[in-house]
């Protein structure tokens, strides 16, 4: 399996090492001691530049510099030697050419999802900054399309859970969700598409700002109590008296125990109280009915 290793140059003007570890742990990075500071697995179905973009997003705003190296079969020595086999050189994220390669990898994935990216491809060759903004609008336009939401891999479930946990009644913007999760905006957008398709999230405008909020799951159906009316006053009073425990009962408890219609419960309690066969302590829903001595 390929591994991605990250080396961070910490500065006194940047975030503390503890905060950096917290940022990297959010994307599944394992802290190391030695030549490198963090290790991430690169699964066969993952693209290197998608993983680099994930790292870049996690460290954005931390005011530190970093480099990335990939190694293959780290634990397997070369024949006749104990050295390991590197398969990729040091990757410097600063040159525009590397950014372009990251965007190309994104476009390729969107193609595989069945989306028409011809307009974006032309923009990528002419203006990287415009491409960055246009790609956000492109994904949001296709947010609820079947092709986007069907792009489901096992690792997406973890991301969807993180995104869903952040959504509340006031709603969150894509930028806020990306900042909180450490995932790139395009992955967050596709995750929101899956959640919207599943009926778990909704998109709305708040003073001109696009936000996403949780759709609470429906409340479980309430089973209605099947009522059994009393045929006469004697039966009514007997059922109420039998329902009252030695310690007393509330009106609601009597209603559930007797299954009498609400109006019959009221009439029966009034009649028994008038006859002195029951006593009432308290008022309203807190009132308790006890048997007279």
How large is the count of helical segments?
12
Question: What is the total number of structural domains?
Answer: 4
Question: How much is the radius of gyration in Å?
Answer: 32 Å
Might you state the CATH topology name of the largest domain?
A: Alpha-Beta Plaits
Strand-residue proportion: 15-25%
Along the chain, the helix and strand elements come as EHEEHEHHHHHHHEEHEHHEE
**Which range best describes the helical content: under 10%, 10-25%, 25-40%, 40-55%, 55-70% or over 70%?**
40-55%
Average of the residue pLDDT scores? 77
Q: What class would the helix/strand composition place it in?
A: alpha+beta
The CATH class of the largest domain turns out to be Alpha Beta
């Amino acid at each position: 399996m390929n591994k991605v290793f990250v080396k961070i140059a910490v500065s006194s003007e940047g975030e503390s090492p503890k905060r950096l570890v917290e940022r990297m742990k959010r994307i599944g990075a394992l802290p190391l001691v030695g030549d490198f500071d963090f290790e991430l697995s690169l699964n066969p179905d993952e693209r290197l530049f998608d993983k680099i973009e994930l790292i870049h997003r996690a460290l954005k705003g931390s005011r530190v510099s970093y480099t990335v190296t990939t190694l293959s079969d780290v634990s397997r020595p070369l024949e006749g030697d104990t050295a390991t086999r590197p398969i990729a050189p040091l990757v410097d994220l600063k040159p525009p050419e590397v950014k372009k390669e990251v965007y190309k990898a994104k476009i390729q994935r969107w193609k595989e999802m069945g989306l028409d990216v011809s307009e974006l491809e032309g923009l990528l060759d002419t203006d990287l900054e415009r491409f960055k903004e246009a790609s956000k609008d492109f994904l949001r336009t296709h947010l609820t399309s079947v092709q986007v939401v069907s792009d489901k891999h096992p690792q997406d479930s973890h991301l969807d859970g993180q995104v869903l946990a952040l959504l509340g009644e006031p709603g969150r913007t894509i930028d806020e969700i990306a900042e909180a999760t450490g995932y790139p905006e395009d992955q967050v957008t596709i995750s929101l598409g899956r959640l919207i398709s599943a009926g778990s999230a909704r998109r709305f405008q708040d003073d001109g700002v696009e936000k996403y909020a949780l759709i609470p799951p429906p409340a479980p159906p309430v089973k209605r109590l099947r009522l059994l009316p009393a045929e006469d006053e004697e039966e009514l009073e007997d059922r109420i008296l039998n329902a009252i425990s030695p310690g007393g009962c509330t009106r609601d408890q009597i209603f559930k125990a007797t299954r009498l219609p609400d109006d019959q419960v009221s009439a029966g309690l009034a009649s028994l109280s008038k006859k002195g066969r029951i006593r009432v302590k308290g008022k309203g829903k807190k009132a308790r009915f006890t048997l007279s001595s």
